[in-house]
Amino acid sequence: MADGQYAAPSGPGGNRPLATLERLLAIDETDLHGALDRACHMVAEALRADKVDAALYDSSTESLVAVGTSHTPMGRKQ
Hints:
Helix content: 25-40%
Number of strands: 2
Order of helices and strands: HHEEH
Largest sheet: 2 strands, antiparallel
Radius of gyration: 14 Å
Strand content: 15-25%
């Protein structure tokens, strides 16, 4: 199922962490930014977070650089 059509189980018998991990492992994007954006969105849904960012270390600037963000209202706003 597509990301927007899947709801991780959250009831007493549901296992949201396992379902989220399975979804993360099933990401089929070949583009790094696309894969990290999708992963951020999945984590934001699972945690019910306003925004999730992924950052990678850039050795040339010795800093973290945001390379992925969740597709949430807050993520689109920033």
